[in-house]
Amino acid sequence: MRLCRFGNGRLGVVDGDRLRDVTAALDSLPNYRHPLPGFDVLIANLDALRPAIEAAARQAPSVPLAGMTLLSPVANPGKLIGAPVNYQQHLDEVLENPDLHHGNQVPVIQRAGLFLKATSSLVGAGEGITLRKPDRRTDHEVELAFVIGKPASRVARADALDYVAGYCIGLDISIRGPEERSLRKSPDTYSVLGPWLVTADEIPDPGALELRLSVNGQVRQQSNTSDLILGVAELVEYASSFYTLYPGDVVFTGTPAGVGPIQPGDILIACIDKIGTMQVDVRADSL
Questions:
Q1: What is the number of structural domains in the chain?
Q2: The pTM is what?
């Protein structure tokens, strides 16, 4: 199943280039009162809600997906987690280019660990990227992203994929400079997730997916998730050994080689096998 959020927060099921509005299924969600839970309630209840979603999809008219403003398929993640230098070729290019490392130490991911991004940086494909620091180099980074489906703490690698609700395309937009990663990667709109969530049952092997990104029609990044240093299962195991993962937490698995600068007016096209394609426009900050 491919689930998207669109418009003013409506829920849709995507089938090819068509969409069915299944927002009515959200009426089956449990009621929550303050203090609200620190996780995404749709993702937490997705398995239980699936029959209602499927029933709503059978009754809803099919409308064109084109022209819809796609939001992040996850509305309220508790954490956005990044895996730095998780492709060997990207690690090599960072070490060789001072414009990328700015004198910072760049250890392998097993020593660098993971980092957190502000949840306020999260947007969907249709919302686009607004460059926050026009005087600074800002780069694209295409990544496989996955969404946690249930609480996960100290999860063994062999069981890790059971905790994944689904997969998305991620863009980890990064300002280059000497500051900590979490600061340079957390401006508003610098975490793009989409174009929809593909449920985990449709991608039994996340370790064999082609991914690529083009800017204005020129391919800049192209690789396969088989080249990840730490794959999805290893990342769940690693992250959950430090902190509990909750439904709706998003993990960006790292970017391959080929990162490069973006400018206002650029059009990014990101593709990952079995997930789809998303277009993301880049604009200047109007303030």
A1: 2
A2: 0.94
In this predicted model, what pLDDT tens digit does every residue of 241-279 receive, in sequence order?
Answer: 999 999 999 999 999 999 999 999 999 999 999 999 999
CA distance linking residue 174 with residue 181, whole number of Å: 8
Residue 137 near residue 99, CB atoms below 8 Å: yes
Q: Are residues 216 and 101 in the same domain?
A: yes
In this structure, the answer to whether residues 53 and 125 fall within a common structural domain is: no
Domain shared by 274 and 202, yes or no: yes
Give alpha helix (H) positions in the chain.
41-44, 46-59, 88-96, 98-101, 109-112, 181-184, 232-240
Domain that holds residue 250: 80-284
* CATH number of the domain bearing residue 186: 3.90.850.10
Instruction: Output the CA–CA distances (angstroms, integers) from residue 159 to 123, 234, 269, in the order listed.
Output: 30, 10, 33
The answer on 99 and 64 residing in a single domain is: no
Q: What is the pLDDT of residues 249-258, one digit of tens each?
A: 999 999 999 9
Q: Examine the fold and report which residue of 36, 71, 106 is the final residue of a domain before the chain moves on.
A: 71
Of 204, 180, 11, the C-alpha closest to 112 is 180
**C-alpha to C-alpha distance for 192 and 129, rounded to whole angstroms:** 8
Q: Are residues 30 and 94 in the same domain?
A: no
Tell me the per-residue pLDDT of 96-150, one tens digit each, with 9 for 90 and over: 666 655 566 567 788 889 999 999 999 999 999 999 999 999 999 999 999 999 9
